Every structure is written in C-alpha cells, then in structure tokens.
Amino acid sequence: MNYKDFIQKISAQTHLTKEETEKLIETATNVFSEQLTGNKSIGIQGFGNFELRKKEERIIVHPVTKKRLLMPPKLTVHFKSSNVMKEKLNNQLKNE
Amino acid sequence: MNDEKISLQEFIDLFAQKANLKNKVAEDFIKAAVSLIEETLLKGESVKIKNFGVFKPQWIEPRKSVDVNNGNEIILPGSYKISFTPDETLQSIVNEPFSYLEAVELDNENANKKNEEEALEPLKIFSEQADEIKSIIAEIQSMSSHQEKEENKENEKKQEKLIPTEKEHKTAEKIFEPEKSKTEVIENEKFEDLEEIKVEKLVSEEIQQEKNNEVFDKENVKQKDNSFLEELDEDIKSEPIGIPFHAYVPSEEYEFHENTEKKRFSWIWIPVVLILLLGGAGALYYFYPPVKEFVNLKMVKKTPALVETTLPSPAVLPDTIEQQKKPEEVDSLQILFDTPRAYSEFIAKERIRSGSRLARMAMRYYGAPEFWVYIYEANRDKIPSPNDVPVGTLIKIPKLDARLIDVSNPRCMEKAKELSDLYLSISK
User: Fold this and answer.
1) Which domains does chain B possess?
2) pLDDT in tens, A29-79
3) What is the pLDDT of residue B315?
4) What pLDDT, on the 0 to 100 scale, is given for residue B147?
5) Per-residue buried b or exposed e for B332-342, using 16+ beta carbons within 10 Å of the residue's own CB
6) Taking a C-beta distance cutoff of 8 angstroms, is the pair B420, B372 a contact?
7) Which residues in A lie closer than 8 A to residue B5 (C-beta atoms)?
8) Are A40 and B5 in contact (CB under 8 A)?
9) Nearest residue of chain B to residue A14 (CA atoms)
C-alpha cells in the first residue's frame, strides 16, 4: 500500500479531507522524529517500539570496484515489533 | 542509548499540542493510523508513509541453531517479522549529529598516502611550533635584557654583600683553624649572621657550634624574623620580575667563592660592610631551608656542599622561564582577541535546516558550542540575528586560528562567552 492509499483510507475512517489527513500525518511524523532526535524511544502498545540506535563505523568492500571503504558511524531509527503484533502476524499469514 | 521512553499516549498529547487538536481527536486519528498500518501488515502488504518509512512483513526462513542447554541441533521454524526501513528524510534528520562524516576510502595505495600525510603533518606542526617558540624566546630575551641588567646589578650587590662576610669569617677562622677548607667556608656563610652577632661566642665555641648550628640557626632566625621581614619586602620589591632569589644565587655564589674570591677580596670588603650586614641577614633568611638541609646533610654524611647547593638552580630555572613565557602567551592571545577577525578561509559549508543550531555546528567543527559566535561573525551578512537563523541559509564555516578555539584555555571560552553576550544583547 502506498502513501496515497494510506491517506485515503485514513481520511475515510476519520471523516477528514485528504489534505487535512496529509497535514496531520506530516505533523505526526515531525513530532515523531523530534522525539527520536531527542533520544527518546517511542513505544506503541500492541504494535512495537521505535528507538534511536547507533551503528558503529565499519569497513566495507565495494562489490564492483573492490575498494575498501570505512563507513562512518550513524544513527538510525530501529523498529522492534511487539510480541503481540508478531504473533498476530504469524497466525494470520501462516494460516493463509 | 535511550534516555527515556514515551508511550503512545504521551506521543498523542504532544501531537495534539502541535496540530492544535483536541486530545480526543488526536488520539482517534493516531489510533486509526496505527490500526490501519497493522491491518495492512496483517494482510501481508507493506505500508509506505511519506517522509517516515516503510513497514513490511518479512518472512524469515527456518534456520538451524543449537540448543543452548544440551547442545543439540534444533531447527528454528520460519516466522514473519515486521521490518521497518526509515525514509531518507527521517534518516537524515535523526542522523544529524553524524551527518558531517563521510565514507573514507581505505584502498591500499590511498591508505599509504594517507599514512604519509599523517606522518608529515605532525612534523609540520612541530616545526611550526619550534618557530613559534624561537620567536617567543627571542621576544622574551629582548624584553628582559634590561631587566636582566638590573638583576645582575642586584646579583652583584648580593655577592658583594656575601663575599666580604665570607672573608671576615674566613679570616676569623684562619686565626683559629687555618687548615679548614672550602666546605668550611661555605658553612661559614650560613652562620654569617650568627657570627655577625656572636663573633666572640663563635670564636670560643667553634666546635660546639658545628654540632649545634641547627639550633643556633633557628634561634637566630626567630629572633631576627621581624627585622628581616622589612628587609625582605624591600628585596622582593627591588627584584624585577619575581625570579626567586635562590634561583640564581646558590650556584653562582659558590662558584664565586671558588674562583674569584681573592680578586674581589681586595676591593670590595671595606665599603660594603654596612650594606652587607643587612643584605647578608636577608640572604640568610632566603637560604634558610637549603641551609638547614645542607647542614643536616653535612652532619650525617660529611658530603661536600657544592653538590647539594648547585642542584636547586636547574630545577628552578625552567620555572622562571615559564613564568616569563606565560604573560607573553597571554598577551599574544589578547592581541588575537582584539584584532578584528577576517574570515577568508572556510572549511565547510552548511545549509540551515529546521532544528539546526549554530552552537551545534560549533561543537562539531571547533569542539565547543561556545564558539558559535565565530560562525555568526563570519556569516553576519546572512544572519539577521543569532537567535533567528532563516531555514535554508547557506552558511560558511570559517577556518579559525587554533589558539582562538583552544577548548582547554579558559580565556578562549571567556572571550567566546563575552562575544556571545554581546551579540545576543545586540539582537535584543
């Protein structure tokens, strides 16, 4: 499902226009990233946890040029689904 | 690395605040979004949210593993998990603290070159430092040349003061024990004050005194402390830049006894007797700790005084050099502070995004947030006020003199704070 479908479905559920929905989603993501940059993790019950993780620097080899590169450390958003969600998913998808 | 964990409810509150929604509406909205994502995932589809990321159910193949308890091989059944790939925008926002880092090539040739460069750079720095030090020393020498003259005068005076007493004592000694040698002379010096006051006593109790000299010294010094203090003050005032008196005198003095005693003997001792009484007393007071040490040493080991007494001078000399150097350094810093900074070289360019802070850039490029003022100075034409940096502005990060942004130097920090106060008050 792409972004367009996503907006459409939410707007149908919440009886808002697509524009409004889009705006709200945007502010939501902004708040989300703000919290993450503030080094806070966000837990959504029954869904999962979002948290900021540091990936250490590492050496990679470019597969084509065979050059060795030192990748700098970086911060990424890490998502870990809750067990509830995982179970649901497995039940649902494995039964199909 | 997480400081805090916030729940969905807290997140909804924040969101409601930001979007000017009632909490209830915001809650419904977010919950609708989350449940929609959930449903879609449960259908086995992926969800893409613009500027945020992609959620995707992912099939993990069954894989072999080992039971930790009994070491048996087991097969973990395949399962689904939700993978989340952050969008590039989110990634870059989150990664801001490390955004200035780039991948570095580590190819063998390049690596060698790099090493060479790295090896060369410190050398350059060393030679630069050497030049700097040379110039500083030259300055110090030129500056202190006249001071040294004064010092020398002072020195000579002291020596004059000391030597005649020496002579006196020596002559006095010669009468009684002419065979006593240089070490004896040196010892006499320590007693000079004693002898000045109690020559007769000394004469009669020479041998006893040698045993009891410590006691005598103490007594005398105590007795004369008050009168000494005044002289001391005078002495200290007359010394130009606070080089400790004992820094140069111990060594020179004793060399002097050895080498030039006889020459000076003929022409100094009569006119200086009066000054000598005062100066000699002062000198003894200065020397008191070393003298005590020496005497102790002699009592125990009978080692020659020269070794003991020449030691302090090399140790103290570097101190004096440092003392001279420090004001010099500070002065050059002051000059650096006072000259208007011209920003011609730049090490980097940054585009201001929402949430960017000059202080954070300063932290990254210079090592301390206080130095944002220099970035501001260099970009004053583009930044109307340090509190309000327009988003999208291209900012140049100036190359700064390393001495200006020395994090370990409190003066640099002070200066930066001063400047920041100034600019902040202007902007208000």
Assistant:
1) 8-95 (4.10.520.10), 150-323 (no CATH), 340-427 (no CATH)
2) 888 888 888 888 888 888 888 888 888 888 888 888 888 888 888 888 888
3) 46
4) 54
5) ebeeebeeebe
6) yes
7) 40-43, 49, 51
8) yes
9) B29
Determine the average pLDDT of the residues in B330-334: 69
pLDDT tens across B239-275, in order? 444 444 444 444 444 444 545 555 555 666 666 677 8
Phi, psi at B76, each rounded to 5°: -75, 130
When divided into structural domains, chain A yields a total of 2
**A vs B: CB pairs below 8 A:** 181
Cα–chain center distance at B355: 34
**Domain with A65 in it:** 46-96
With CA atoms as reference, report the closest residue to B51 among B254, B354, B375: B354
Q: Tokens standing for B230?
A: 């005044």
**Helix, strand, coil share of chain B (percent; to 5):** 70, 10, 20
Q: Are residues A28 and A58 in the same domain?
A: no
Same domain (yes/no): A25, A52: no
Phi, psi (degrees; rounded to nearest 5) at B73: -75, 135
List all residues 6 or more positions away from B176 whose beta carbon is below 8 Å from its beta carbon.
B203, B206
Average pLDDT, integer, range B38-51: 87
B3 closest CA partner among A61, A45, A51, A2: A51
Return the C-alpha torsion angle B12, B17, B20, B23, nearest 10. 40
Chain B residues inside the 8 Å CB shell of A25:
33, 49-50
Residue B85 bridge partners (DSSP): B54
As a whole number, the mean pLDDT across chain B is 67
A1 residue type, one letter: M
For B82, the closest of A9, A29, A48 (CB atoms) is A48
Q: Which residues of A touch B50 (CB under 8 A)?
A: 3, 25-26, 29
What is the DSSP track for B115-171? HHHHHHHHHHHHHHHHHHHHHHHHHHHHHHHHHHHHHHHHHHHHHHHHHHHHHHHHH
pLDDT at position B405: 77
What residues contact B236, with CB distance under 8 A and at least 6 apart? B242
| ipTM for the whole complex | 0.87
On whether both A50 and A95 belong to a single domain, the answer is yes
SS3 content of chain A, % helix, strand, coil (to 5): 45, 30, 25
CB contact under 8 A, A37 and B82: no
Strand partners, B184: none
Digit-coded pLDDT (tens) for B270-323: 666 778 788 777 777 666 666 556 556 666 555 444 444 444 444 444 444 444
Hey, what are B19's tokens?
């979007």
